[in-house]
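so im writing up the methods section and need the Haem-binding domain-containing protein record in one place, dumping it here so i stop losing it
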Amino acid sequence: MKFKIILCILALVLLAQLIRPKELSSAKAAPVNMLAGVPKEVAKVLETSCFDCHSAQTNWQWFDKLTPANFLVASHIREGRKAVDFSQWDSLAIPQRNALLYSALNAILSKEMPLSSYTALHPAAKLNQKDTGLLKNYLLNKAVSKPSAVENTANGNGQTFIKEVKKSPNGIGYIADYRNWKAISTTDRFDNGTIRIIFGNPTAVKAIHEGKTNPWPDGTMFAKTAWKQQQAKDGSVYAGQFVQVEFMIKNVQRYADTKGWGWARWKGDDLLPYGKTVKFDSECISCHRPERNNDYVFTTPLDIKDFNKK
Ligand code: HEC
Ligand code: HEC
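--- predicted struct ---
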């Protein structure tokens, strides 16, 4: 008797395998054209952790395909693709692609994605710090280095460089090279109206690695950029109009009067120097004063610890 019941159940389970959601029946869908324009290693992170639910390219395990588990999987795919579909990549305009990547980063940083129920069974899809760092650094540098962010500016003239930038009232000249420095910090949740990214020059990065950040060595330079946060139709957020870039340049002797740092700020797409008088930087100093025991630098040590782990 018992044996018959087991046999019956087994037959039902086998029979059930004939009923399958269409999302999984189409065997292996054509591979997505690996996110054209995105560096391979960055695209790889998204492919491994997100494509199963957010693209036509799925790579489900045998146990995902068993009925009834496959119905849950199919609903993830349906819902997931509705929210974000990387298969659409080739048909998206550049700003939409950027928006998609920023929303992906947001979802990852906020730990909403990938779904934890999924990573429990698919540990390879779990993101480590290095994976997240790759995506983050790519987007941070993208926000400042290439024309696509400039394309989104209000005047939309796609201008990528400015012939001559005026000096700051205290004599400090503009440093265009900061775009090639390393991003050392950002606001993790882009939710306060601007997206801020802080860059450190090679001297700063070396000091971080050596743990010699208080005081920072002469030659250290920081750039803090701010971009207006822009919202896409789907609610995702990305870097829009350029607001300003600010610098701190360490030289104990030259900048003895201003706490050992040279301070300067340029505003807007036209990079107009900020400050009416030579002494404009007292405003910078007074706001940075709470960090006087940290050599007047805010970005420390939490972000730096984080940075060293990568
Ligand atoms: C197991 C399936 C699954 C995986 C894997 C997965 N997602 Fe999702 N994702 C979903 C579903 C389902 C939704 C829609 C429902 C929701 O918002 O919870 C969604 C929604 C989203 C959204 C929109 C969120 C919002 O707040 O509207 C983003 C962005 C996103 N996913 C990004 C990612 C990224 C990036 C990855 C890879 C790191 C990823 N997802 C991996 C299933 C998945
Ligand atoms: C209203 C207060 C305030 C004023 C005024 C201010 N800052 Fe800052 N600054 C901050 C805060 C807070 C941070 C930390 C990063 C963040 O939260 O954006 C920061 C960070 C920076 C950084 C990155 C290095 C660091 O300390 O983390 C630079 C560079 C910088 N500011 C330059 C300037 C310059 C130049 C001026 C003057 C033209 C200035 N700041 C004026 C508050 C201020």
